[in-house]
Amino acid sequence: MTSAAHAEPSPRQSLGRRLSTFFYRHPWVGVAALLAVPLGWLVGGYFGSLFVLLLASLWDTDPFTSEVVHNYTFDNFRRIFEEDVYREVAWRTIRMAALVTIADAVLAFPIAYYLARIASPRTRNLLVVAVLMPLWVSYLVKAFAWRTILSDSGVVNWALDPFGLSFDGYSSVGLWLVFTYLWLPFMILPLYAGLERIPHSLFEASADLGARSLRTFLRVTFPLAFPALVAGSIFTFSLTLGDYIAPDLITSQQFIGTVIYDQRGTNLPVAAAFTLVPIGVMVMYLLVARRLKAFEAL
Amino acid sequence: MVESRLTRALLRVGTGVILAFIYLPLVLIGLYAFNRSVTQGWPIENYSTKWFSVAYHDEAVRSALWLSVRAALGATAVALVLGTLISLAVSRYHFFGREAISLVVILPIALPGIVTGLALQTTYTTVGIDFGLLTIIIGHATFCIVVVYNNAAARIRRLSGSLEEASYDLGADAWQTFRHVTFPQMRTALLAGALLAFALSFDEVVVTVFTAGAQQTLPIWIFANLFRPVEQPKVNVVALFLIFASIIPVYFAQRLGSGAAGTPRGGR
Amino acid sequence: MSKARWRRLRFAGLAVYVVVALLGATACGSDDDNEGSAGGGTTTGEAAASTEIPGLGSTIDEIKQKAKEEGQVSLVQWAGYAQLTKEFAKETGCKVSTKDGATSDDMISLIGTGQYDGVSASGNASVRLMERGDVAPVNTDLIPNYADVQEGIKNKDYNSKDGQPYGVPHGRGPNVLAWRTDVVKPAPDSWGVIWDPNTPYKGKISIYDDSIFIADAALYLKATKPDLGIDSPYQLNDEQFNASIDLLKGLAPNVGEWWGDYAKQIQSYANKDVVIGTTWPYQVNTLKADKKPVEGVKPKEGTTGWSDTWMIYSKAKHPNCMYLWMNHMISPAAQAAVAESFGEAPVNLKACALTKNKNHCNQFHASDESWWKDIYYWTTPTADCGGKGGTCKTQKDWVNAWTEIRG
């Protein structure tokens, strides 16, 4: 109540009010207060542990007991760079990651486009749920189901048998299929969101200007959806790059993930040194993705 | 619609084919849950529901399930708090390093799980932390933050600041404004983020293998029993159970999250 | 505060954090290091290691009493080793939980986490565990059944140090060549069928995924290339080592499966994804029990094998239950059970009367030492060639070479 006649003293401000005024007047402190704990967790905890991993890559192991010894040496890096096998494994994994990303992009586009632009709202809700559901099925169970499917006595060969064909499922091709399957939802969802964001008027304008479907796709849809595509590719690429479970189920080849996993116990420094490869690759990938505006599409 | 009829028809067919591709293995898993034999051959010879009761009574399965639930709840709680804090800071203030924040937040989920896992495990061993529920939660929370952050930041960005300013003008302090103005508008986005963080943590195995020590979450139990003949049918049953148990939360997450521009990221 | 000052402050904070983390990590790390070698054991040259483990009783009755309070024991084991666990739990009150190790290296890192009470260690793990101080010597007075263990297996270099026993023997057996009898004909009797670069089973071979398999290559070279002068397949000089590596690199493209999980290998044999390979008698037994046409043999060149020991973690949380467990596993009943189910020779010959197959001990040569002459138990390579002079490749060399071989 405000009565101009009474000059009441302003109410004693509570601590909360005083703090909040302080934050309002000094926004820097406000930001710092908000970010202190989360950044402490991420930078301190997470980056800190990455730092320890980097340290571990400089340590040595006892040649007999395999215990980690805190002597600093560049031996592990020398090994990673000099021995051919590490380079071959790295390239093999990066190639696989790229192929999987391309396959997922090709498969995701039609369904994402359909969801975003053609399906009725009710169908859309149902279909999005349908796409999300497999994410709740254990990744391990899915990978193992594929192992059964690809086996010589599995569904694929059972279907090809009448035609006299056979498919060696336990191969790189088989693994590529499995990875493509596993990560497909991670590509569909950002792509769907990205396509949904494109204003309808752009499509109408393109049609008005005389472009047919393919032309519109190449000149309008694809460029506008590209950041979303890159956003989805971050996951398909990174998940393939470091996976150690699916390769072990499907092939007998080594990948970056399996090498690191095998060495983690009694050859930790070498494993730690090798992790710098996927870290380096993903950091570069993220920087490029950021340049391509993928972060806004996440 | 601007797309030609042919295009629409083709897309409809394409969508159907891709959905079939997605669901065929899942149907198989469901069929194997009813497979009487302990060997996973094809075609299935005998069907039976006996494994459902076996799985239900298995103590290892139950305690693994309970551990997974606790870990997911803990990780989601931490991710909610931290994700909300970051999203508030980034959306409402301009400061040096704001663009870098998004890189920092996404890194735990963008770096392959084996890197995160090995880094955390090496740190715990070097510093001397005992493995258990706490280390599992720390690991999961770290990469769940981005899921909450995305949803929350997208929602806040779409809210004009005018309601908050009006709140300040009317004499509310920062906490009151958050409680009565900002938070109610963010609630559904946070809920969607929380549901997806829960899903992410629940199914996580790649990092958890490194942070769980001797404990078994449900995915770790599955990993350990994937090839054991007697345990395998139970694994399929557990997978089938999870599919059906997840329909409701996923549906809700979709309904709530459709208000947020940030798209969900599900289990690994 | 100006932007520039704020920026400098943040960088300073980050730098301080980094330095602190670096110091902290190394400081804590070196504590860990000392802890590792001091726990339970001592470095050579000092007084004999103590069998004392905190909480361990000093008489058998005290152990039984305390075990009831402990209530559980967790073990790292080779698949299928723990037998009669329900009976054990009923009798002692200790519930048994087990974790299968895929390889000896795996077992060493599992024990290193400190979350297990004991391990069934093969020779290529046991010596390293003793050196690391991760296992403690045992007071055999507190283990009544120890008296019945074959004398020839007691106090060997892989289960004792400085005259002190470091565990109780478990059993011994060979790694066998196993094949599907419906695909591989005639029945092989030599490792050559695998090592042959033109093997007809290309892509269907199953090989153990651990660096210790290099010894199997050396073993084959010992028989086929005697001028290399290989004596023990675990102690190899440069020339012998490189020859073994080359042999393995020739094998690698023909391998269909590198196995670490015994159950995965069983499935592969059952589904004919592999038709021949190296395995443990356990898998052969399991496949036979499942009516699959599989057979196993010790080839004429001899083979690698193992002689395993149950050892107690030096900082075990349930030492009393572990002592009772060690006693249990060398009891005639448990020995008979594991010898038959796994397919190995027991170390307590009283078990021979209890096996279902009365001929088991003979078939597995439990007391026939001549049969074991060409079975080379898993051992860790050492730089001093096991004390025989010369320079040999170390465990570290073996582990690093394995990644190269896998390709």
How would you describe this protein?
- The complex is a heterotrimer of chains A (298), B (268) and C (407).
- Chain A has helices at 15-25, 27-56, 75-82, 84-118, 121-132, 139-150, 155-160, 172-197, 200-208, 213-242, 246-250, 256-263, 268-291; strands at residues 60-61, 68-69.
- Helix content of chain A is 72%, strand content 1%.
- In chain A, 51% of the residues are buried.
- In chain A, helix 1 packs across helix 2, helix 3 packs across helix 4 and helix 4 crosses helix 10.
- By secondary structure, chain A is mainly alpha-helical.
- Chain A has a two-stranded antiparallel ribbon.
- The model of chain A has no long low-confidence stretch (mean pLDDT 90).
- By secondary structure, chain B is an all-alpha fold.
- In chain C, strands 1, 2, 3, 4, 7, 13, 14 and 15 form an eight-stranded mixed sheet that branches.
- In chain C, strand 1 (72-77), helix 3 and strand 2 form a beta-alpha-beta unit.
- Chain C is globular, with a radius of gyration of 24 Å.
- Mean pLDDT of chain C is 89; it is low at 23-46.
- Chains in contact: A-B, A-C, B-C.
- At the A-B interface, helix 1, helix 2, helix 4, helix 5 and helix 6 of A face helix 1, helix 3, helix 4, helix 5 and helix 6 of B.
Cα radius of gyration of chain C in angstroms = 24 Å
- Specify the structural class of chain C: alpha/beta
Give the helix level of chain B as a range of percent.
Answer: over 70%
What is the helical fraction of chain C, as a range of percent? 25-40%
Secondary-structure element pattern of chain B, one letter each:
HHHHHHHHHHH
Note the beta-strand portion of chain B: under 5%
Point out poorly predicted stretches of chain C.
23-46
* Coarse morphology of chain B: globular
Terminal residue distance of chain B: 36 Å
- The total of helices of chain B stands at 11
Order of helical and strand elements of chain C: HHEHEHEHEEEEEHEHHEHEHEEHHEHEH
How many strands of chain C? 15
What does the radius of gyration of chain B come to?
Answer: 22 Å
Oligomer: heterotrimer
Distance between the termini of chain C: 57 Å
Strand content of chain C: 15-25%
Structural class of chain B: mainly alpha
* Biggest interchain interface, per-side counts: A-B, 105 and 99 residues
- Tally of helical segments of chain C: 14
Spans where pLDDT lies below 50 across 5 or more residues of chain B: 259-268
* Biggest sheet record of chain C: 8 strands, mixed
